[in-house]
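Input for the complex:
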Amino acid sequence: MMRAAKSPGVSSTRGIVLAVASTLIPFAPGCVRPAFAAPSDSSFATVIATVQPKVVKVYGAGGVRGLEAYQSGLVISAEGHVLTVWSYVLDADAVTVVLNDGRRYEATLVGADPRSEIAVLKVDAADLPFFDTRRASPLDAGARVLAFSNLFGVATGDEAASVLHGHVAARTPLHARRGAYQSAYQGDVFVLDAMTNNPGAAGGVLTDRDGRLAGILGKELRNAQTNTWLNYAIPIAEIQTSIDDILAGRAPSSGPRKESSKPEHPVTLERLGITLVPDVLPKTPPFIDSIRTGSPAAAAGLRPDDLVLFIQDRMAPSCQTVADELSFIDRIDEVRMTVQRDQELIDVVMKVE
Amino acid sequence: MNRTHPRRGASRSWIGLVVALAAHGAAASNGRDVRADDPVPPDVLAAERSRIEAIERATKAAVCVFGPDGKGGGSGVVISPDGYALTNFHVVQPCGHAMTCGMADGRVYNAVLVGVDPTGDVGLIQLLGRTDFPVAEWADSDTVRVGDWCFAVGNPFLLATDLQPTVSYGIVSGVHRYQYPAGTLLEYADCIQTDAAINPGNSGGPLFNSDGHLIGINGRGSFEKRGRVNVGVGYAITTNQIRMFLGQLRSGRIVDHATLGATVGSDDRGRVIVSNILASSDAFRRGLRYGDEILSFGGRRITTVNGFKNALGIYPRGWRVPIAFQRGGERFDTVVRLAGVHAPDELFDSVQRPIAPERPKPEPKPGRDGDKKEPAPGEPRPGPPDAPDHPAPETPPGHPGGAVRKVPDEVAARFEARRGYANHFYNRMNRDRVWNQFVAHGSFAALTGDWAIRGDAAGSKVEIEWTEGAVFGRFPDGPSRIDTTAELGAQLQPIGSGGLLVALHLWRRMLQLGPGKFGEVHYWGEAPLPGRAELCDVLVATHDVIECHFYFEPVSGRMVAMEMIPDSESDACAIQFDDYQSVDGREVPRLLRILYGDLVFAEIQVAELVFAPQSDKTESDKADGNQGGQPKAGGAPATGNADSPERESR
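Predicted:
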């Protein structure tokens, strides 16, 4: 489902008013904090109260083998766009978003970017308090930060997300491909000195000490060499393009399409030379079972055990959707496919005729 | 700045810089570099000083707890000058009844177990040897806000070989958290979540606010796949919950948490709805039904199931708590008596082994402890395995807690094993304290003859007479009588009172015989009484199968109420005693308010009281059956006219 691409926040009048107001507040008399706030002051409590309404709990697939069926997210538009991480949790028929005030919504997936590992959900709400991602706070090492998330699924209903405090220890590229961390994301991260990245924390919010959005808490990453866990957040600036692409419909998305747009002679798995694993579940993950020698798939370098993620930049989360998506592609056109091999994402282009 | 904003234009960054400068002034740290020789702003120094002071003050009351054989261990905090200290149940559980405690003054104290709350994971111990222990000041934990600074003090990894506690600083990450039982009795309701490091060994230690005032007892962390170390998520039991349980813990009992007798769930609109209810529960008798929406409990608005579990989880079994619920748009407000979460045997079996061991012990322990039925120090107690998310550190070799010690005499002298009790010594001590305070206002022990009360209720004459083997009552609705030699539970007279005459019979029995001879009487702890701000001391007395709760006002020591509960599925007949006046050296109530269920049965203004010192025929306890001893009139404080019936008129 392609939504009209609205950039969250700045496109709405309300968003502008809010943004201007928040810029002006520091000028008001009495609101100027001393540069070195006394540690005993409770201004954190005030700041936290302004951030919590923009943090959401996300519930979806999981609940088995140590895979938690929940994660965190943040509201990025007044109309209910929710930024979160792209993970197995979203691979469910119904993804539920629970707002800070306890309101529950069934969310639709607007789109996802597997490279930056983010996704945008949409809930049918209005006038929500939100973060303007374009006003994200740039942070350097040493900056004091707050991390908001529903780690360990501690909060339910109208209970507020957990808040941890810490500092940015470093801003540095994540050396994902050197074997230390298995992550598709390879850009810069804020490395944090607080235990922020717990189960369920992914998709949570990193703010500066004034509650300004700075990053999104990443998925749990364990260093395979040292057996330690990394606490980190992805700077919003690193994923702004992905967010824009998703909201503009340029990013992989899913959803129904008009049957009438199907070509007369579509591509099929058989013609590509791909056999998927037997389709035995309502949403069987589309792992490749075998590749026919000499087929377009073989020529493109696909291998058994590759997991199909995207076809023509549309998500294909199950064997059934793979077949459906192919049925919209004419045999004379190229087939662009993204697969996951171990932790690596591989793009291939195939041509049937 | 552009370096961190590769996709932004320089002009945008400049706007940000100008705003930052204008907002924060020239001293803003992001406006210019801070140099080493810059003077530190005074408010920073002041904050530093107040933090140091708070930590210095607070750590003095912190305790490192070790088992007598050095096994196990954890942390604690002293809350009274005579050495009462809070810790976790799961810290004291492996210690038995004796432990060794170190404090920041570098001294080691013997300590004895007082009471445990296995469900809430709280243990009360008493450090011995001083009457001037440094104590922690309490804060109202309901005022704690997310983002407040806080610090944990304790003995992580049992590092305190020099007995100096470890301090870890953090913020409050969440309040009113509910943590499900971790495969054991333990349930953390309404707790404080913090990112101050809580590691194995911190268990039982204090969590202080930035002023150094106690807000909770650290006890649990979320330890999952990352091993048994802090992951930034620790939970503390709130001081406000502990306040509710403190009187109960002082009773030396194994205390229980409460259940409504109903389960709740949330419906599709997110409302909290009664999904099941026991017909035998007090909640049912007070009108709560399946499908009702819970609006508030204990004065808290209920919006989630967790919120309800939080509101319920802070109360001890047996307390009466206000509840508001809604049915068909109509709101109902009432007060319900809460039942126990566990059957008593289930609770006791999980905490202590049977008093009489089924298999013979290899050899009896010599000395004073030889006849104690408690497990020997270090002997593992049966019970729930230590939950994986509860810190239980290893003792490092050469640690002061590591040496095997005999139970010291001062500990043995303050310990009595008994089923249902962590330490019966403290129960007896408090029972005697409450009773001695009451009889200081006048003893009734010598008054074994006929008694009578005459007065009026709402303009009608009321008369109650206690005689040999019977109690008579004349009420506006007619006379009634009970035979005190027959089964009392079958004579709940007069109708509509829930058994007023039975209650009055047992009231006189208690006044005459005292807790030593009444039957089974124990100190139950503190409980609220509707209409009173302060908690009352409660003695629970059992006669045949009838349970009586006697409430004593803690300061004056007066008996302010009693409840006669014929069985667990019936409402109590409650009598409130008020308007005490001194008559012949005894304080006697001049107003009796009788309540049954939701109704006031009568309010009796007493005009005349008659207490005969001795009946012509026999003493009252013979009429009651099986009491062996005759109450000794001589043992009671003598009154001037003890030989003649005391008569007094208003």
